[in-house]
Amino acid sequence: MSGMGLTFKFYVGRQDYLFRGMVQETSGKDEKGKTFLFRREVSYPLVDPTPRLSAADFTFVPPPGAKLSTKKAPKQSATRNTP
């Protein structure tokens, strides 16, 4: 392959500065000298950038059948043991 070109464009909201999308364009020539162009577009539409969350949204609910372990986690040393 000979030289290739690559361009990224990032779209950011003017009011909230949130990432809204991206365009990637790649071009060049293959082994036979044939020109190619690749374009990929990605968009991230937001439904609600400021959702109202309550404490219940951050409560862990264990899966059905889960059991509470009474074992303590092993203590880790502050330094690594190297041979």
Give Rg in angstroms: 25 Å
Shape designation: extended
Residue runs with pLDDT of under 50 for 5 or more positions: none
| Spatial order of the strands forming the largest sheet | 1-2-3
Question: Given the structure, what is the number of helices?
Answer: 0
Q: Kindly state the percentage of residues in helix.
A: under 10%
Going by helix content, strand content and strand pairing, the class is: mainly beta
Structural description of this entry:
This protein has no helices and 3 strands. It is extended, with a radius of gyration of 25 Å. Strands 1-2-3 form a 3-stranded antiparallel β-sheet, with no helix packed on it. The model has no long low-confidence stretch (mean pLDDT 86). The protein is mainly β and 83 residues long. Helix content is 0%, strand content 35%.
Question: How is this fold's topology laid out?
Answer:
Blueprint lengths: L3 E9 L6 E11 L5 E9 L40
Antiparallel strand pairs: 1-2, 2-3
Give a short overview.
The chain has 83 residues and is mostly beta strands.
Descriptive labels:
single chain; 83 residues; mainly beta; three-stranded antiparallel β-sheet; 0% helix; 35% strand; extended
